[in-house]
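Quick start: read one record
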Amino acid sequence: MRLLQTLFACVACLFATSGVANTLPDVKLAALKFGTVKWELETIKRLELDKKNGFNLEVVDVAGKQASSLAIQNDAVDVIVTDWIWVANQRSEGKDYQFTPYSKAVGSLMVGPKSSVSSLKDLEGKRIGIAGGPVDKSWIVIQAIAKKRYGIDLASQNELVFGAPPLLFKQAMSGEVDAVINFWHFLAKLEAKGFKRVVDVQDAATELGLSAETPLLGYVFKESWAAKNPKLAEGLRQASREAKAVLKTNDAAWEPLKGLIKAKSDKEFEALRLAWRQGVPGDSFDFESAQAMFELMRSYGDGKLIKPNTVLDNGAFFASN
């Protein structure tokens, strides 16, 4: 009899727990299917940090940045991952998006193991591969530091090759470009293969009077959604912080992610883990530092990165009540 009572109690508890989980509101988040954001999202789901913080995270796979932008504009998802410059441009058109930090990871300019290039002034006449296009944020910072240090215009004195990150990774490996500016995880893979950093964008930002701690990438949602669902917006931010705290300090937490990361070697895996950890932002966000970076991006973006009528306002950044 006691055994049956215990069994019924366990079943009742199971259904009660399941019922609580099923009543949690969903937060739909669009993310690149094979993107690095999935490392954090998978950790949130595996450790049930979403449920701990009062919501059920539903990850919607998308093929690219444009697809995620369309998804949130059409209310197919609640949250996407993008930068606050996109948020500022959207707000200038009356669209009420807000940003909460995800990562401060940025790119660098790298050259191959046998390259004779040791500084930006050695690049004259070289082929530079640039992921993200002419208005890539890392490329803008590197142009600015080249002008400040040596008075040189990298765009006019070099052959620029714009392309998708995986393609430029291959061209760097094959020597088809002399230097490359790529997304942080491709650079980590190159570093594991002996490539050298000529300019680190975070160091360059500091030299330009900017804060290297200013995160560019973040979770983005509509201000109206956050006003209606403040506990969900704050819950997402808290779940992100808790996942980062685990991944930053616990090597074992990375083991379940190896299938997603697909590193070619232990050295590459360790380089990716280190680079990801270096990109973890602090808990505070300094608006003045963001404003200074915004003005630099406006100066070098040739009107294409930041629209002429765009301003950066405090309302672009989510703050819990």
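The first strand starts at residue 26 and ends at 32.
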